[in-house]
Fold this sequence. Notes:
This protein is an alpha/beta fold. It contains 12 helices and 16 strands. The protein has helices spanning 3-14, 50-57, 76-95, 111-123, 141-149, 183-198, 216-232, 252-265, 278-288, 304-312, 323-340, 361-375; strands at 26-28, 38-41, 44-47, 62-67, 99-104, 129-132, 154-157, 169-171, 205-210, 237-239, 246-247, 271-274, 296-300, 317-320, 348-350, 354-356. α9 (278-288) links the parallel β12 (271-274) and β13 (296-300).
Amino acid sequence: xxxxxxxVLASVAALGLLGTACGTSTSTGTSHSGAPYTAKFDWGTFTxxxxxxxxxxxxxxxxxxxxxxxxxxxGAPVNLLAGMRQAAKDVKTAYGVDVNVKLIGPANTDPVxxxxxxxxxxxxGQVDCLAVExxxxxxxxRAINQAIDGGVPTYTVNTDSPTSHxxxxxxxxDSFPPTGEHPMGQVAGQYTIQWLHDHNVTPxxxxxxxxxxxxxxxxxRMQGWMDTMKAAFPSLQxxxxxxxxxxxxxxxxxxxxxxxxxxxGHPSVDLYFDSDxxxxxxxxxxxxRGKKGMINTIGYNVDTTYLDEVTSGDVMATVxxxxxxxxxxxxxxxxxxxxxxxxxxxxxAYVQPTVVTTTNVADVKTRLAQEIALGS
Length: 376
């Protein structure tokens, strides 16, 4: 086993932190093979919609819907659908009930449009179980609570809204319990340090880049990466803070000129950390400027372009937060609730990431191809 493969497995194991329960969750009401008609959580009592309860009792097909921030982006929507569809197959095998899965969302990130769309779907009776990626967590609290009040089991995926009444969160551990730890940022930082040591590089100045500096998950990743880097390179200077970083949005067409202008104004920066998809665009910019090897970058997520850049060395690595496993967890968790009566015992179901490097990128490409086939 090579050094890098050892690191990847160790990092993944380190991320397997047990989610701290947000309190006990117990079910009450009539005992039967399907969902409890009521279930108690720290925030109060959930009562299942009579329409959904009727479908469960009759073993009719159920509609599981995941609301995502944008369907136009390459990568995440396909990964999410792949996980949902695989989970639906497994639910059919386990319970003999069909689950229709659907991914909805605006073409481009628009929280107002996203909230309106999911509310319309619920009002139309098209949702028996809901998952939401609340791109701006606080803005979605009311919509999530309305779904819960209407008797629709509701989860969060990829981004959490911890003050809402959601059943549970399925996703990466960016900044949630244990308090004060930022595992996703730490894992990226640990690999950055290893890569720099392996290539005999000592960074002088690092820049923090994000799609949304107000998002708690982004702040958690930046904080974890920055703290880890400071411990290894005490003299490393930083441009930006987790709450005041270069904010580019999520559109590659906008990221490229924004970072290009930043590079022009900050020629001493030789290391870029992006909290999301932006590193693949930064990697292209670095190569276009003939700075490959002199400026380095690392970020998150996977698509075919991103993996090609890992292969070519345009980016140091990328941290795959496993959208497929996040959405799988939502579908399986809600099916277990509706069809078996299992109430989440913890508010957090963390998904372990994969650090994608030149050592394992070929395997990840194979997996991604399978996800694309299943999710397209």
